[in-house]
């Protein structure tokens, strides 16, 4: 059977329930947004092909449930990750304060070979809400936190409006590529990697 060579890059998105993890993933992969909210149960993933320097990569983006009772499901999903995305809602101080917990949880569950240098990206989502008047976490505060954790790249996004989503995921893909744990996979030409990777949830986390 004919095959083509790809490199699989695994990305994990973490953050409190309701911060927009699923919406960010859907906006990036499918260019779609839904106002219907349905919490992710367990984990879902989408894939998207990206190209860097004439090489084809398959970005496998895992969206894990933010509810604490599902965190124990994470071990299998975290293993082998090439980049971890920490998402919070700029209108929720609690979701920002919990970033450190999610970061530590990831390092414990994923056990990367080089935890000090493992690539993280932080996204402050929902900058569109109420025209920005209801935000409680300033960009300065968020950037200071990222700087204190080893200069983690930081992006402010609106999954609803599509603001900075593409740019954030381009950074995520580059960082995943740099982590050096890429896995060569072989897929038959007849398989469309996008067709079988729709989320099981009918709605999304917005």
TrEMBL record:
It is found in: Cell membrane. It comes from the Eukaryota. Gene3D superfamilies: P-loop containing nucleotide triphosphate hydrolases (3.40.50.300). GO terms for cellular component: plasma membrane; vacuolar membrane. Its main location: membrane. PROSITE patterns: RAB, RAS, RHO. Pfam families: Ras. It is a lipid-anchor. The keyword Transport applies. GO terms for molecular function: GTP binding; GTPase activity. GO terms for biological process: protein transport. The keyword Ubl conjugation does not apply. InterPro entries: P-loop_NTPase (IPR027417), Small_GTP-bd (IPR005225), Small_GTPase (IPR001806). Keywords: GTP-binding, Hydrolase, Lipoprotein, Membrane, Methylation, Nucleotide-binding, Prenylation, Protein transport, Transport. Protein transport. Probably involved in vesicular traffic. Belongs to the small GTPase superfamily. Rab family. PANTHER family: RAB FAMILY, RAS-RELATED PROTEIN RABG3F. This is Ras-related protein Rab7. It comes from Rosa chinensis (China rose).
């Amino acid at each position: 059977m004919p095959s083509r060579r790809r490199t699989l890059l695994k990305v994990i998105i973490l953050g409190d329930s309701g911060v927009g993890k699923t919406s960010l993933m859907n906006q990036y992969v499918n260019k779609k947004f839904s106002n219907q909210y349905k919490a992710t149960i367990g984990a879902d993933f989408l894939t998207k092909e990206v190209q860097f320097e004439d090489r084809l990569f398959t970005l496998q983006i895992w969206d894990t449930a933010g509810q604490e009772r599902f965190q124990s499901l994470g071990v299998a999903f975290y293993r082998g990750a090439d980049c971890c995305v920490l998402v919070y809602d700029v209108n929720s101080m609690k979701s920002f304060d919990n970033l450190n917990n999610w970061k530590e949880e990831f390092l414990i569950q994923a056990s990367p070979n080089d935890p000090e240098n493992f690539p993280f990206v932080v996204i402050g989502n929902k900058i569109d809400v109420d025209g920005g008047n209801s935000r409680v976490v300033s960009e300065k505060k968020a950037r200071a936190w990222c700087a204190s954790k080893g200069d983690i790249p930081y992006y402010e996004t609106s999954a609803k409006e599509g603001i900075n989503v593409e740019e954030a995921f381009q950074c995520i893909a580059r960082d995943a590529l740099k982590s050096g744990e890429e896995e060569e996979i072989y897929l038959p030409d007849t398989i469309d990697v996008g067709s079988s990777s729709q989320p099981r949830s009918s709605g999304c986390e917005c």
